[in-house]
Structures are given as C-alpha cells and as structure tokens.
Amino acid sequence: MAAPEGQWVLMATGRSPTNIAVIKYWGKRDEALILPVNDSISVTLDPGHLSATTTVAVSPSFPSDRMWLNGKEISLSGGRFQSCLREIRKRACEFEDEKKGIKIKKEDWEKLHVHIASYNNFPTAAGLASSAAGFACLVFTLGKLMNVKEDYGELSSIARQGSGSACRSLYGGFVKWCMGKKDDGSDSLAVQLADETHWNDLVIIIAVVSSKQKETSSTSGMRDTVETSPLLQYRAQTVVPSRVLKMEEAIKNQDFESFAKLTCADSNQFHAVCLDTSPPIFYMNDTSHRIISLVEKWNQSEGTPQVAYTFDAGPNAVLIARNRKTAAVLLQKLLYYFPPQDKDLSR
Fold first, then answer.
1. Are 45 and 18 in contact (CB under 8 A)?
2. Cβ neighbours of residue 48 under 8 Å, at least 6 residues apart?
3. Per-residue three-class SS string for 144-167
4. How do residues 262-301 score in pLDDT, each as one tens digit?
5. Is the peptide bond prior to 340 cis by the omega test (within 30 degrees of 0)?
6. Rg of the Cα trace of the chain?
7. What is the β-pairing status of strands 51-59 and 113-120?
8. What is the model's pTM?
9. Which of 23, 68, 113, 155 could share a disulfide with 62, CB 3.0–4.6 Å?
C-alpha cells in the first residue's frame, strides 16, 4: 500500500437490476451453500426501473467492515454477507493507481476493510426480489473494486451464496440458474439463455399490491416447505425438469402462448406448494387473486394469451404483456378495476 497510510480511499459503484422468475426457485438442498432443489429461469428487468445501486469504498483508515442499506446501517455479521466478502477477497488481484500513489498487493485485500452503501429504488422484502438485486450488486461492485478477474458465471456462484436468485441478476435478458449436481456447489451458477435485445416486444408491468414486508421471509418459508411439503418433491423431480425445457424453447422461438401458459402455471404451482407447507404460507391476498381472475378471463375471451402473470413470495403481481398495445390495454384495465388509493392497490 504505497500511499501514506490512511490517506487514501478507493471507491467503486455498480448497479444491478432485479429479476423475476418465470420458472420458480423454491427450496434448498443445501442451506449453507444455497443450492436449489431445481433449475429456475428468470427475466431480468430494466435497471432503470428496478435496481440496487451499491458503492463500495476501501481505505486503510477503516477499522472494520460496515454497511448501510437505504441510509440505515445494518449488520454485516451474517453468514451470507461474510461468504460473499470472503469469496471476493480470495479472488482479489493486485491493484495500482500511479496517479494517486496507491498500490494494493493481492495479500493486502485480506487486511483492508470496506464500507458499503446500497440503495434499492423499490420496496425491500415485499416479494420483488430486492435481495437478488442487492447481493448481485454487492458481489459485482466488490469484484470491480478488488480487481477480480472472474467472469459473470463465476461471480454468479458467489452471489448465489448471498441470495439464491442473485446469481440470475448478473445477466440481462433471460437467465437460467442451473441447480448443479456437485456437493460443493461449483456447478450451481447462472447462464444467459438470451440477451436483453432478444424479445423486445414484451412489456412488464408490476402492480404493487402492497409494499409492506411479508410476514414469512423467503428463507424461513423455503425451509418449512422442504421439511413438510410432499408436493415440493413432486414439483422438483417431475414437473420442473420438463417445464424448464419447454420454457427454454418458448423463449428461443418467442412463442408467447407457450411462454404465458408455462409462466402462469408455474406461479400457481409455487403458491400451491406454499399452501401445502405446514403451517401453510400465504403470500398472495384477495387483490392478488382478483388480478389473476382478471387476466385469466381476458386471456380466455381473446382465445389466446395476451398477458402472463407471476407472483413471487409476496402479493405483488408481475404482468408480462405480449406487446406495447396489449400493455396499454392492461394498464387501463388495472386502473379501472383497481383504482389506486395512496400507493398500494390493496388499500
């Protein structure tokens, strides 16, 4: 560290979007490494609308690692944060900035502490995959700061150890999280199926039914489901493998009818698995169910799907329209049937 001790700060900033699973991840076969019981597929949203922005700073003057989320300091003592920090530090490379007189050797990164400031521009813990965007952004930005040379696939396996779905947020477009088979999780990583330019006709509208924190966290909900739901095992072993292949084909061919039917079916089965859990988990509410009914009746009346719906672990609806014209009609229907009062459709 060539510059005078404590007199320099090195910073990096990154932004990662959230992603919405169309074939759901629910259930881990290894809690510590966050290894899933099945493959999953997601679409990455436009980072200009739903994303996490993270700035990481490092300095010899920092006595400890610290983090702020949306302006409030949070603890970094949790195992998931520590896993991401440890894995990135392990892969850190030598860095030199001659103008600033900074030289950091590979072994120095283990001794240096970081300050992390992260901001989500959408509700946290409301079923909109805030942790996916957050951990993907954290890993990407730490890697940028520490001059890590690994590709996005390798970085995705690190982000996975923070939040499973985070591995999919390192890519744009359509992304598959391969569950992998190895016990150490080295083959459980994300691959891009198609980039963000592949299917430009699609328009995604998110109806924020409630921005409140969900009562059952995804982590505890998954654990309970794995322990108590016979339906989960059937889903993971029998349903999802063939559904993933069909979804890959639908994405490749831009086949909206197949895409919509698979997306809706998988969302409904995911919530059925939650209901099959003991005690049952209720992520959706009456407004969520009314949105499903609206979309189903509209699709049936048109004779072919116009809109796909999917709900993650929360009541908020992610609606995927086949084109802009359909999206405009969808928005009119939502505002007519669910006139917003304040910020939430449920109020």
1. yes
2. none
3. HHCCCCCCHHHHHHHHCCCCHHHH
4. 999 999 999 999 999 999 999 999 999 999 999 999 999 9
5. no
6. 21
7. antiparallel
8. 0.91
9. 113
